[in-house]
From TrEMBL:
Residues 1-66 are annotated as: Disordered. This is SET domain-containing protein. Pfam families: SET (PF00856). Residues 111-305 form the SET domain. InterPro entries: SET_dom (IPR001214), SET_dom_sf (IPR046341), SET_domain_protein (IPR053185). The lineage of its organism: Eukaryota, Fungi, Dikarya, Basidiomycota, Agaricomycotina.
């Protein structure tokens, strides 16, 4: 059995095992205290950040431990809990556990999902990846076999799930060990956030803790250590505070939660990614799926930034991760490719409107396909497959082929579109 810090299993009832938004890594919105900006702390290996004056660093009260079956938490509660819960006999969930820094009502919302807790989705094949050094990028994750677009590669329970903005936490944080009111609000938030992460870290298994502390930290100088790891490795999930958004809508960034995963965190960035991350709420797990056919031996890449922006803007968005992207899309960027990145949704929308007329026309000339196929080719070359307009473009091409009576071609596009649409579809909880 895996050891857990602070876990009181005696009151935990035997439970059956206990998630759609595309996830991208993101920057945690915490204003850092000025005094840590130029500190010379090492990268992400230390737990004790050296609390500044006015902060009492001591053992946390036992009331900070919450393994709760309750689903009636007050609006202003913050809890750090292990999810899913351990069984009454102390045994763990075969799919592992996550530590979750949550606002009470959001915790309740997940526990009340009819399908929670489900086992984590399993890939069709075992051992489809290996973590190993990647030249010039530290560690990376590589395919061990050929993988088809749309295939689930692996899913995992995150080591840590956390609120993506710190500010609203402070007022109601019962774990606070701040004894001084001298700190500015930004300083307090950053300190308190680190403290919450410390609570979560202490609750992890030894293996989980070691895995968390071994993750890359690109924020050695401008963040506290555990938060630096969050900022370097976190991916957004589809968990958010407050009522769920309308179908097709999304939570405001400040209400979302992010996740740090053990394997997923090792996936490096490319502006032409071949995998995407989805969080599955009912199994509380992150899924990594192929968005392109991938050959055995190739490295998996996700995108750490929005792709609907120019190379210069992507460079700015990636700067906090401490590297300059040398992917072919960035290296070969020219004004025309930048324009495609920024105008891709509008170009697809224009074809979408034109296609309505084409469908109604008594006869259609096959030449209407030329600019559509060219746009598809350019989109693939520019790494725009993960963008939602790409799937819309596939749908337009499919319909035009069908109208032209070219069934086989239409079927080919249906298949690719369906495979991409299926990513994350097993989350029927919203
Ligand atoms: C989420 S981690 C990815 C895993 C990391 N390579 C490791 O060894 O754990 C992010 C860090 O990996 C490195 N990295 C990711 N993508 C990169 C790229 N395209 N070029 C260079 N370094 C990259 C950077 O140091 C970045 O801060």
């Amino acid at each position: 059995m895996m050891k857990r810090g602070f876990l009181n299993t005696s009151k935990v009832k035997k439970q059956p095992l206990y998630g759609r938004t595309q996830s991208q890594p993101h920057q945690l919105e915490i204003e850092e205290p000025v005094e840590t900006r130029n500190s010379s702390k090492s990268l992400g290996r230390e737990v004790d950040a050296g609390h500044p004056e006015g902060v009492v660093a001591g053992p946390l009260p036992s009331s900070t431990i919450e393994n709760s079956l309750r689903t009636d938490h007050a609006e202003d509660t913050i809890l750090v809990s292990t999810i899913p819960l351990h069984f009454e006999d102390g045994s763990g969930d075969p799919d592992g556990h996550s530590e979750w820094i949550a606002r009470g009502p959001t915790y309740d919302k997940i526990l009340k999902l009819p399908s929670f807790p489900s086992p984590i989705p399993k890939p069709r094949r075992h051992n489809m990846y290996v973590v190993k050094p990647s030249r010039g990028m530290g560690l990376g994750v590589f395919a061990t076999c050929d993988i088809e677009a749309g295939e689930l590669i692996f899913s995992e329970r995150p080591l840590l799930v956390y609120p993506s903005a710190a500010a609203p936490l402070e007022a109601s944080n019962p774990y606070s060990r701040l004894s001084s009111t001298k700190k500015t609000s930004g300083q307090k938030e950053a300190i308190e956030y680190e403290q919450l992460a410390e609570v979560a870290l202490e609750r992890m298994t030894e293996e989980g803790r070691a895995a968390y502390l071994s993750l890359a930290n690109a924020h050695g100088r401008d963040s506290r250590p555990l938060v630096g790891i969050i900022k370097t490795n976190g991916y957004l999930t589809n968990i958010g505070d407050g009522p769920d958004p309308r179908p097709g809508g999304d939570y405001a960034h400040a209400r979302k939660y992010g996740a740090v995963c053990e394997i997923g965190a090792r996936i490096n960035h490319s502006c032409s990614p071949n995998v995407t991350f989805w969080f599955n709420r009912s199994s509380f797990s992150m899924q990594v799926s192929a968005i392109k056919d991938i050959k055995g031996g190739q490295e998996f890449f996700s995108s750490y930034c929005r792709l609907d922006q120019s190379a210069a803007k992507r460079k700015v968005a990636l700067a906090p991760y401490g590297f300059e992207c040398k992917c072919p899309v960035c290296v070969h960027a020219i004004p025309a490719t930048d324009q495609l990145h920024e105008e891709f949704p509008a170009r697809v929308q224009r074809f979408s409107e034109l296609s309505k007329g084409w469908i109604r026309a008594p006869r259609l000339d096959a030449s209407v396909l030329d600019p559509l196929l060219q746009l598809e080719k350019d989109a693939i070359k520019e790494g725009l497959i993960p963008e939602p307009p790409y799937r819309r473009l596939l749908g337009i091409i499919e319909v035009v082929y069908a109208k032209l009576g070219m069934r086989e071609k239409a079927g080919h596009y249906t298949e690719i579109r369906c495979r991409l649409n299926a990513i994350g579809e097993d989350d029927k909880t919203r």
